[in-house]
Amino acid sequence: MTIAHQHIIRKTESVCPTCLVRLPATIYETAGAEVYMHKECPEHGVFDVYIWPDAKRYAWYAGMALPAASRAPQTESANGCPHDCGLCPGHERSITLPEVEVTWRCNISCPVCFMFDGDIPADPTMEELRHMFASILRFDGQNLPIQITGGEPTIRADLPQIIELAIQTGFEAVELNTNGLVIGRDIGYLKKLKCAGLTNIYLQFDSLTPEATATLRGSDLLAAKMQAIENCRAENIPVILSVAIVKGINDQELGDLIRFCMANLDVIKGLALQPAFESGRFAVTNVKHLSVADVAGLISEQSAGQITVEDFWPVGSSHPLCYGSTVLIGKGDDFEPFTRQLGEAEYRTLIDRHSPQGAAFQDVVSRLAENPDSVSGLPILIMEYMDAWTMDLERARGCNLAVTVADGTSIPFCVYHLTDGSGKRVYPHGGRGRHDRCA
After folding, report:
1. At CB < 8 A and 24+ separation, what contacts does 187-195 make?
2. In sequence order, what DSSP letters do the residues of 58-75 get, joined into one string?
3. Average pLDDT of 120-143?
4. Is 413:403 a contact under the CB 8 Å cutoff?
5. Which of 60, 152, 233, 354 shows a CA-CA span of 20 to 30 A to 217?
């Protein structure tokens, strides 16, 4: 496809989806006002990749960037982005939400799993974790939240001790990313995690139907996940629902999921919507990339316009094209998106670029409220991760979400999970060596 007669929005860099060689890329607007990326690999040919449904809204998002604040690099720029991560001197933003993987084992085998690559290294030792935690605080600063993730972290018998170590190191909050099976089955175990310092649960929760849950997770785990929510309610542990959206499977449930959250605001404190991207094990067919604007459009349709595409705004801590967010203020069916109260000037004044993405607008609401505890609302975050097809290295350099590996270096989330056409990772789990082709 030629782009000679298309409107060019901007130039960037990307990678070949087959071999991951770095390529110049052009972001352009089609005659139908959609946004595509054009790139050409000398070996593997020409790629024109769908990016966004609305060029005007895309340009507005891109123009909403806040001033970037970088941090000290840990690696040198040698092979060029995305092969020098650690972070290298070319990275443009600090990390506001670090992740640490405490295992690559799991207690289920999901058809949709961006972590899977057939290689399961040994769990990091407590000493390695201690080093990783200390490195995060050294390079990214004090008073950060941290997400403990995997694999499935509850597989580790010493998870309470890991959480306790994170708190002792100085993190202000410890979030656990889990499929919920163990905490749903054993409330006593959940109590131990809370006593160790756990502050909230990031719960994998893709659907309110047994059928879609089984399609995405390999079996019907809905009742177990519901019980996990009930156990968190009993222990007063906030839950954020994390939804992997796959077109044709659960993309028509977004309205129902929002209504479910609004009916359970006593325990559910956030909804994270993650369009599926191509990495790891992906056994679901007919997958189409969904952007922030695509997901916002689905929400608008499924809420009968009570929430609109225009209600979702970028967050200040990252590249503006990476996330769309709002907060629904109210309860049940009686709510209004907080972002309707903002103009661009107010946004630039009020948004704290140090707020993690999911907290960006909730933090603004809390600062403006006379009594923050009296404000009831649901933060919604749409998280547009990139794969080898959609990789925009300008966005990658503006990432605020990074995985810290065994040697203490940090790798932006989308780059860390980047795989070539055969599914081989650029950065193996935990940074335990490098694949030959990427060395």
Report:
1. 187/231, 187/234, 187/235, 189/154, 190/231, 190/232, 190/235, 190/237, 191/235, 192/160, 193/159, 193/160, 193/163, 194/235, 194/237, 195/160
2. HHHHHTTPPPP-----SS
3. 93
4. yes
5. 233
Taking the CA atoms of 205, 208, 213 and 214 in sequence, report the sign of the dihedral they define: positive
Distance CA(245)–CA(414), nearest Å, equals 17
Question: Of 118-122, 238-242, 338-342, which range is least confident?
Answer: 118-122
Structure tokens at 327: 């907060």
Contacts of 436 (CB under 8 A, 6+ apart): none
Q: What is the pTM of this model?
A: 0.93
Per the structure block, which two tokens stand in for 340?
């309707």
pLDDT of residue 432: 65
Task: Say which CATH topology domain 97-383 has.
Answer: TIM Barrel (3.20.20)
The separation between the first and the last C-alpha atoms of the chain, rounded to the nearest angstrom, is: 33
259-275 pLDDT, tens digit each: 999 999 999 999 999 99
Q: Strand 200-204 to strand 401-404: parallel, antiparallel, or no bridges (unpaired)?
A: unpaired
DSSP letter assigned to residue 360: H
Every domain of the chain and the residues it spans: 1-62, 97-383
Question: Is the distance from CB of 201 to CB of 235 less than 8 angstroms?
Answer: no
